[in-house]
User: What shape does this take?
Amino acid sequence: MAGIDGRRRRAFRTRAAVVEALLDLLEAGELRPRADRIAERAGVSTRSLFQHFADLEELHAAVADRQLERIALEIGPPATTGSLAARVASLAAARAALYERITPVRRAALLHEPFSRAIAARLAGMRRSCRRDVDRIFPAELERLQPAARRELRDALCMASSFSAWEHLRRHAGASAAHAERVVARSLLALLTAARRKES
Assistant: This one.
């Protein structure tokens, strides 16, 4: 029994080392690390790498779950109370912290999303979570609207605070993180203010 337990512990440590190694490589900007690079970083043989994961899909799932664990430990939720301006600023700051933290891994995930059910499912879950944040942070502003207008505003807020918007600002427009955060906050506040004026 002790021998079996020891093997299980070693197998668990090896799996964890492989997952951490792949995440580290992704965060260093290697969007598609080769198996030998992952094995070298994890301190295991390439053969051992494939002994601990049935296929790439299983490895992708483990890496995605570990990334979500890291994020949960490092990034706090945006505020749900306070003035409209304060809540907008909190959401923009939270998104800035999140996106700056996950950008390299998210870029790699987006490359694999069409081909990996595991990655697609985790990304869909994060998008739903961002949508729930909008509902929690701006309930009064959304609930006062008619259903069609509410959905339109919710979708607009989600788009303005999305990773796609952040990536456009940081990667394609060349904006600094601070500038991008201000643009997100300005966009959110403009959408909410316009909806309130239209409703009144």
